Amino acid sequence: MKALACLWLLLAPLAAHAAGDAVAGRKLFASCANCHAVGPGARHGFGPHLSGLAGRKAGSLPGFAYSSGMKASGLVWNEASLTAFLRNPGDVVPGTKMRYWGVGINDKKVADLLAYLAEQDRR
Predict the structure, then answer these.
(1) Which end of the chain is more exposed for a tag (fewer CB within 10 A), N or C?
(2) Domains by residue range for the chain, with CATH
């Protein structure tokens, strides 16, 4: 089943992901773009936009109707919470609206996605 959404977020410093490949991350983000936008002028779609989320509390972006599970999760998005969420959204945030079932996210893919998102956030 094609991913309907994915929540790829940034790390504040992103120094740990210097080895990430933003070009490869852009290709991986293509399936996320069905529901999410990132970069200058990004707006909510079926999912919230993903710009500037590093260090932000999950479910707190104004103007998007998050699930009660996401709002109550208490997560702050960072490398560890993002990686866990990408691997299994429903286990990390029970009741999430996220309908992304994962594609075997590995450390390289996470680094690539984070590099792409960081690049977009710097624009």
Answers:
(1) N
(2) 15-121 (1.10.760.10)
